[in-house]
Each structure stands twice: as structure tokens, then as C-alpha cells.
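RECORD TYPE: inverse folding
INPUT: C-alpha cells
STRUCTURE:
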């Protein structure tokens, strides 16, 4: 029996299997053990430069669920979108975005979690999209494992510095006001810019203006698109794909700092970087 007005919070803890506690304030927690994901489960597909298909299966490694790209056959219905397992958010496998000259392909997905009073709360899911041409520039890393790729900062620097479009799609999984979202993002960006120039400050001001005064509802999508290492486009969509660009950020320091926030040495979403590393491993076999 759950008391009237009780609030439910799902909490994942580390055990030999993935364990979920559904906790209600003022009520004794209830523990449930979900079924493990089958090792042959079919999930997201990665397009490599020859357009081969790599579905994404979920498996348990070191007692934690991770993404892993493995070549398997998939049904046509699974080609259209890929589900981020922790949040159940679906990502299209390819996107055509305002300001981009070509469609971009999904490379990996993950989620962002914030801890409040020792309770981890998922804030958003994220998916990284890239121009498939980038694979032709990464021959040096062919045959490397995902673990090696994930630790190699030079590879991610190469991806960022490539004069090819890439985009991060963020999908909110809870309501949040624009100022709170920006403050959290700025908290991660600013320390990565040691001596901001006037150009950097102007870019950050423009970036902040996109979110000020906007209530960002659950399922809102935020697109951060790097056209090149010096130019980034910001688009918001409250009901699907964006039809226009809300802001243009022209600052190498801001653009590189934001890329580092998600794919650098201390990413805000470790699950996203791990998934991207697995995608690169499969594409660079």
C-alpha cells in the first residue's frame, strides 16, 4: 500500500545483477530485479563509411550494462530508430539538420544523470551524430578495442578538428527551466576555457540567450551542431526535428570546450562516450 501523495523515485544500485529500488517517501522501499538483456538482443545500427549495418546490442560487462556494436542481421523496423536503454529515448539513425550540407549518422547514445541528496536523477538522453566521411580519416585507429579508443584523446581531437559536420542531440527526460539547464551547461564549459577572449564571452552570451526565459518541457530536443571547429549551431525543438537555427556560436574555444564536455577526458555522460567508443570500434574493424 502506497501512501497518498507519495513520490516514486527509481534508484539503480550495484549488485551481481542490475537492481532497481522503487522508493516512496514515508514508505518502505520495494526492490525488483529486471530481466537481463539477452546477449543477442538487436538494437541501434551504425553506418560505417561503406554503409554496412552494425546493430547495437546491450550486454553486461563487469556487472554493468554497456553498449556494444556487433554485426548482425536486423529487421527493417529496427532501422528507423535506436533506443537509449537507460531512458528509453529513441534516436533516429540519421538526421538532416538545418545548416548541414549532408545527413549525419548516429554513432552512439548515452544519458546524463545528476545526483540530488545521494539519489541519481536522469536529466536527459544524448546521441552523437557524425558525417560518415570521418571514418576515412581514422585509419590509424583501425583494429583497436573500444577500451583503447575511449582512452585515446587524440582520436576524439581528430574527430573534433575534422572539417566535417557533427551534432549532439539532447532529449530532456524531465521538465526543466532554461536558466537551470544553461547554468549546468555553463558550469561544465567555463572551467574548460582558461582565459576567455572577448569573442568567447560574446559567444557564451549568445549561447545563454537561447535558453533564458524558456521552459524546457520533457521531450524537448536541443541540437548542438559543429559545422567546423570554429562554428557551432544551436537549435531547439519542442515537437520533433528543428526547422531553423536559433543561434550561431562562433568561437573555437567555446566549440572545443563543449565537445570536451561530452567526449573529453572527464565527460558529463560517461555512458555516451563509452557507446561512441564501441561504435568507433565496430566501424574501424
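DESIGNED SEQUENCE:
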Amino acid at each position: 500500500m502506497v501512501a497518498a501523495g507519495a513520490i516514486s523515485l527509481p534508484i539503480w544500485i550495484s549488485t551481481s545483477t542490475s537492481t532497481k529500488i522503487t522508493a516512496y517517501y514515508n514508505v518502505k522501499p520495494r526492490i525488483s530485479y529486471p530481466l537481463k538483456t539477452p546477449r543477442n538482443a538487436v538494437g541501434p545500427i551504425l553506418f560505417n563509411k561503406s554503409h554496412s549495418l552494425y546493430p547495437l546490442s546491450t550486454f553486461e560487462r563487469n556487472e554493468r550494462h554497456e553498449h556494444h556494436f556487433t554485426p548482425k542481421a536486423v529487421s527493417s523496423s529496427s532501422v528507423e530508430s535506436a533506443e537509449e536503454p537507460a531512458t528509453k529515448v529513441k534516436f533516429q539513425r540519421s538526421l538532416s539538420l538545418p545548416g548541414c550540407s549532408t545527413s549525419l549518422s548516429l554513432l552512439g547514445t548515452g544519458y546524463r544523470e545528476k545526483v540530488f541528496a545521494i539519489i541519481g536523477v536522469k536529466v536527459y538522453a544524448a546521441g552523437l551524430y557524425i558525417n560518415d566521411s570521418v571514418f576515412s580519416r581514422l585509419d590509424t585507429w583501425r583494429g583497436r578495442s573500444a577500451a583503447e579508443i575511449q582512452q585515446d584523446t587524440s582520436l576524439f581531437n581528430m574527430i573534433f578538428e575534422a572539417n566535417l559536420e557533427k551534432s549532439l542531440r539532447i532529449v530532456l527526460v524531465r521538465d526543466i527551466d532554461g536558466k537551470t539547464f544553461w547554468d549546468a551547461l555553463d558550469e561544465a564549459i567555463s572551467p574548460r576555457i582558461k582565459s576567455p577572449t572577448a569573442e568567447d564571452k560574446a559567444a557564451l552570451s549568445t549561447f545563454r540567450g537561447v535558453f533564458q526565459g524558456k521552459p524546457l518541457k520533457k521531450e524537448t530536443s536541443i541540437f548542438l551542431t559543429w559545422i567546423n571547429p570554429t562554428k557551432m549551431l544551436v537549435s531547439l525543438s519542442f515537437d520533433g526535428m528543428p526547422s531553423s537555427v536559433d543561434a550561431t556560436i562562433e568561437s573555437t574555444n567555446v566549440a572545443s570546450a563543449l565537445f570536451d564536455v561530452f567526449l573529453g577526458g572527464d565527460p558529463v555522460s560517461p555512458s555516451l562516450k563509452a557507446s561512441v567508443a564501441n561504435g568507433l570500434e565496430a566501424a574501424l574493424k
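NOTES: The two ends are 53 Å apart (CA to CA).
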